[in-house]
Design brief:
The chain is mainly β. Helix content is 0%, strand content 48%.
């Protein structure tokens, strides 16, 4: 079955950086678009970014454009999110998700990112 395991979260100061990883299994990773989404405390899911199956096309939400970079390593079945210039409002649980940005599927436990001084 599909498994998505996120890691790399933690506590970081405003202005800092983190790199999130997602290990995917149970499906043919290199034929799917992949996304990062997040859920801040008390809020709904927010889509952040999508990457094409070959990694040659990316798209970002305005809230993270210019600060976050999505990438993938197909031979390793891994998805990444490099986050820079982190803000307090980036505090959330981050999830990777499979499929198009309008109909993604997620189901991992997520990884907590807390931006605080």
């Amino acid at each position: 079955q599909v498994q998505l395991v996120e890691s790399g979260g933690g506590l970081v100061q405003p202005g800092g950086s983190l790199r999130l990883s997602c290990a995917a299994s149970g499906f043919t990773f290199n034929i799917y678009r992949m996304n990062w989404v997040r859920q801040a405390p008390g809020k709904g899911l927010e889509w952040l970014s999508v990457i094409s199956p070959r990694g040659d096309t990316t798209k970002y939400a305005e809230s993270v454009k210019g600060r976050f970079t999505i990438s993938r390593d197909n031979p390793k079945n891994k998805l990444y999110l490099q986050m820079t210039t982190l803000k307090r409002e980036d505090t959330a649980v981050y999830y990777c998700a499979k499929g198009p940005e309008t109909a993604y599927e997620y189901g991992g436990q997520g990884t907590q990112v807390t931006v605080s001084s």
